[in-house]
Amino acid sequence: MSEQISDRAGLPGLVDRLKQLLPAKFRRGAAVVPVVRLSGVIGAVTPLRPGMSLAGVARTLEKAFGTKNAKAVALVINSPGGSPVQSRQIYLRIRQLAEEKKLPVLVFVEDVAASGGYMIACAGDEIFCDPSSILGSIGVVGGSFGFQELIKKIGVERRLYTAGAHKAMLDPFLPENPDDVARVKSLQREIHAIFIALVRGARGARLKGADDVLFTGEYWAGETSVSLGLADAIGDLRSTLRSRYGEKVLTPVIAAPAGLLSALLGRKSAGAGSLAALEGFGGLPDELISALETRAIWAKFGF
After folding, report:
1. Set 68, 167, 185, 268: catalytic member
2. From CA 51, how far away is CA 257, in angstroms rounded?
3. pLDDT digits (tens, 9 = 90+) for 227-275
4. Among 73, 166, 169, which Cα is nearest to 123's?
5. pLDDT surpasses 90 at 47
6. What is the structure's pLDDT at 303?
């Protein structure tokens, strides 16, 4: 009789251990909040070292929103920005999936959610950040170099043939044309207006700052970002999800599958090791330039 009682007493423990072997989405009795990391510069940097794009994250997002028994989807963002087009497309896809699956989106900012990174963060129903996180930079930037004096010194003659009055606009080997600069600034203002409208639509009445503060391209640390309405609260993923969904909340990380080509090239996920290409880039100038460009974008925000 005592042996039977002992066997029955050990049964729940055995069942619990077996449950741990099941994928998180099949376990009962605990909330599931899949986690997706969105990190790195947005848009193409070089063909061999692409940044974050809709094509690269779409399947991961779909898998996260399709997780069985999910109560919400958590996005961990760490991006200094990049392509406004890719940023907006990722934003739109997140919102489409959230509406289709009727799931709230909780965004957690790590080091930076600036420029296009903040645009993606606006896809969250709520945005949380660390006191030292950097948020904002709601603006548009572009730049180039002028080499016309350099090529004169080294005896190089520039020969350029075009059809179309503005086809060679902002050519770095020609003197800067004020009319071309005016056209570029007009284009930037148009893109900036789209960015502003997106932030206003996403954050609504939560925005507390004036337009001439929020939309100048300036950026702020976590506490100030909360006071301006760019974020909702200071909080980390683990503590926030546990307080909201219980101590046993399950947070499976949904990662992009590694393809054969990626494995052969040894490519890391977007944003991983911005200086990696500097270490043994094998004499490939595009890898060196890619690393320097990526580093420069991060350095703007002190990272």
Report:
1. 167
2. 16
3. 999 999 999 999 999 999 999 999 999 987 665 444 444 444 444 444 4
4. 73
5. no
6. 62
Which alpha helices (DSSP H) does 102-210 contain, by range?
116-121, 148-153, 178-203
Q: What is the pTM of this model?
A: 0.78
List the domain boundaries for the chain. 22-137+218-299, 143-203
The token duo for 249 is: 């909340």
Range in 17-31, 136-150, 259-273 the model is least confident about:
259-273
Contact call for residues 240 and 128 (beta carbons, < 8 A): yes
Query: What's the CA gap between 273 and 123, in Å, rounded?
Result: 26
Tell me which H or E stretch contains 135.
Answer: strand 134-136
Query: Measuring CA to CA, how many Å separate 104 from each of 33, 96, 97?
Result: 10, 12, 10
CATH topology for 22-137+218-299 is 2-enoyl-CoA Hydratase; Chain A, domain 1 (3.90.226)
115 carries an active-site annotation: yes
| Residue of 87, 159, 149, 156 lying closest to 123 (CA atoms) | 87
- What residues does 36 pair with on adjacent strands? 75
State the catalytic residue, choosing from 115, 133, 274, 290.
115
In eight-state DSSP terms, residue 257 is: P
What pLDDT does residue 21 have? Answer: 58
